[in-house]
Amino acid sequence: MSLASLDAARGASDDAAFGAFASRASLGQSALALAAGAVWLGFAFLTLRWPDIGDWGRGPELAWAAAIFGGLLVAGGLFGGFWPRAAKRLRRSTPWFLVLGLFFSLWQATTAKSTLLPQPFFPPPHAMLEVFIDDWAKLAESVAASIRLEMLGFAAGASAGFVIGVLLGWSRAFGYWAHPVMRLIGPLPAIAWLPIAFFAFPSSWSASIFLIGLTTAFPVAILTWSGVASVNTAYYDVARTLGASPAFLIFKVAIPAALPHVFVGLFMGLGASFAVLVTAEMMGVKAGLGFYLQWAQGWAAYANMYAALLIMSLMCSGLVTLLFKLRDRVLSYQKADVKW
Fold it and tell me: Both 240 and 145 in a single domain?
């Protein structure tokens, strides 16, 4: 047998082995999708057919939604080969769908069906659905109020922190006076300023903006300062040789080079500002998710409370995602080490 025929036989054997492996992997993914669909169908049957202990609404709606979702998963497992692109996306999320179906089934069984978890502290899933359907107007109003307050405070704090950070990194005279003040005020938690802020500002709304801005400004200023101070001096020397003015050095050399540090400060400030946002809304602002959360806790409406917590989490995650997308667009020339 010639060498060419041996290579051809070896290649055919490798292709056959790869095809068998791919076939087994595809069968495994289909079986996983079928299992996930079966779990969601079981959750629907559990919700619809096992009587509730207590007066909980929206059970049939949740059961039908779970049944439709489970049917889609089963169809994806059986006929995914006809839609390869959709099947690929399904395979990526199927393990999560399976785990979530098991979690919802356990949650349902231990709350509405058997009360193994004490009531009313642990409402069932369809009680949460009832809140989203019946109280959506108040929730939407609270979300809008929280986003408006958060964005105003975050924008004010980020702008002030950015300017202060650039001045700290560029001007020794400014740093001489501002650095000790920042070391004194910066480490203090913004919550400690609540009594002073509510006394000094004309309204709780403006006081909350100040507290959110203060929380955001400190990390942005420190990271911007670090970025400007770490710029290679050779860049400045080259620019000065070409006749660059001080304004050009700041806006065209220092700030662009410091942008990666600036975005790190923005991420830190955004996360910290959410804690202040919720506290401010619970303490003085009569609107927003924090106020809704306090109202729900006062009336022992724990389903409403958990719904507000879930929306807070989604809102914070969404804003961080938008900030990451902005970072990726502005710093498209730089490989991102941190993903979200």
Answer: yes
